[in-house]
Amino acid sequence: MKLTHGVCGITLAAFLTACGGGGSDGYYNQNSDSGSTTTPTTPSTDQELATSVLNSVKQEGKYLFGAYDINNEKLSKGYIDHALDTFAQGPLKLTLDIRKVDLAKYSDHYREKCFIKSTTDYRACYVFKGEEIKTLLTGYSDWDFDITADDLKNIKLASDNISPNLEDYQSNTRIYIFQNENNDKNFQDVTITGAFAYPFQQSWGLEQTKQKRFVLINSTTSDYKITTTTVVQDPETGQPTEKEVTTGAMSVYKDNTSIDGDLYVVQGGSGFNVLINDNPNVPFAEPISFVVNSTPGNTNNATYKVKSGNQQILSLPSITSLEGSRVENEPSTTNAQKFNGSIYLEGQNIFTFKQSLNGTTLNFKHVINGISIEGQSINQNGTVSTTLKTPFMQKFTF
């Protein structure tokens, strides 16, 4: 990243600490030390905190400025990048893409009552699960929708105290499309649960470039849960028996009353765990956890809207508990990090902005640990130039 008007990076004590990765000149230490002065809009003490938060966000969340590229192995990917790309390209995109399937061709996937023992949900549904999802949708050929012990072979966690453990990640992906008594609501509610894995590119200057994210929608940290009935083998009799299983899930409902575009509303809080094994400083994989809160009709309502001209708006007013660690040996640090706040992106191709057409703009308005970060980015032939309004006037490029 190149600063054209700013200040040197300051380590944030209250937010993100000592961003590392491969030593003092390591992979995550990519900021230049250029910069003159900024125009402060806050008192000096607040400005120091705002500067620290901003510099840390530039390091860990290029996604927030549109400067993220999943296929660029040389572009470092921080905690915020991993979390937002997982949310956008994973459960959100999957629940949108599955709506393109012609359900009439899949009568064998239909359930008269989706949740057999439920006394609060009598809806029928279509269910798609595991690797069959690849046969329904394009663009997912290198994804894994059925995580087994073999998929996790040669991966370890730092200790037995890490939760979720590797066994928890062993699950398939399940997508439910719900019928409704009201035709206006029919097949507009789509829920995803389970686990999946997908690739990204990142190099630490050694050998490996193709990495993989293992993703679990966590029942412990999700407010939105579903309880399904599955058939398992009884450990005592060896006979098949029914068992109820409760899992974390994410439900995305299309509100067809919206008059200026397609509006998708997240129906409850969903917690995610992302297992990353790219850091060559340590032999173990490092987890990231985050929660996207949402309550329809409330100010923390998480939404995604697509307007005419492919104008997109992602509004996540309540992100909590985004945390993880990234161990570094020279100097020694765990890089323990925590994040909370709100995220707002508006423009064309907001999830792949760095690959958008020359001159495309992205407007953003975030609040990161109490610091407002607002401005606009412009794609200039793959170089993202960003102009901030708050917390102070500043320009920089990625």
From TrEMBL:
It comes from the Bacteria. This is Lipoprotein. It comes from Acinetobacter calcoaceticus ANC 3811. The lineage of its organism: Bacteria, Pseudomonadati, Pseudomonadota, Gammaproteobacteria, Moraxellales.
